[in-house]
Amino acid sequence: MDKTKLSDLQRLDLCKKYFYGGFALLPFLWAVNAVWFFTDAFVKAEYPQQREVKKYVIYSSVGALVWTVVLITWTVIYQQNRAAWGEDGDQLSFVIPRGIP
């Protein structure tokens, strides 16, 4: 999609959709929203909807960052404790590793 062909109001609407889409357990949309609309929010000359776009870009960045921290934390905890958790640790995995780490 070429967002340069969209009006400022349509860009704001698209930015909102990506932001709310992130709440459907799709945090990748927040990361895309933050990157894709960064120039519209912070670099481009002032326009009426810029304040709202800026708000959604900041919230999307924070949401993506929080999800990234949570995912990394869970991965580290799981990798360190899978063997200690026994069968419960194995049941959490799609691929059950063989042997003891």
Overview of the molecule:
The chain is mainly α and 101 residues long. It has helices spanning 8-21, 27-36, 38-43, 50-81, 87-91. Helix content is 66%, strand content 0%. It starts with 7 loop residues before the first helix and ends in a 10-residue tail after the last helix.
Label the structural class.
mainly alpha
Radius of gyration: 19 Å
Give the ordered list of helices and strands.
HHHHH
Instruction: State the oligomer.
Output: single chain
Strand percentage, roughly? under 5%
Helix content estimate: 55-70%
Integer average pLDDT: 91
Backbone shape: elongated
Tell me about the biggest sheet?
A: none
| Uncertain segments | none
Distance between the termini: 46 Å
- Count of alpha and pi helical runs: 5
Tally of DSSP β-strands:
0
Topology of this protein?
Blueprint: H1 8-21, H2 27-36, H3 38-43, H4 50-81, H5 87-91
Helix pairs in contact: 1-2, 1-4, 2-4
Task: Sum up the structure in keywords.
single chain; mainly alpha; 66% helix
Describe this structure in a few short sentences.
The chain has 101 residues and is mostly helical.
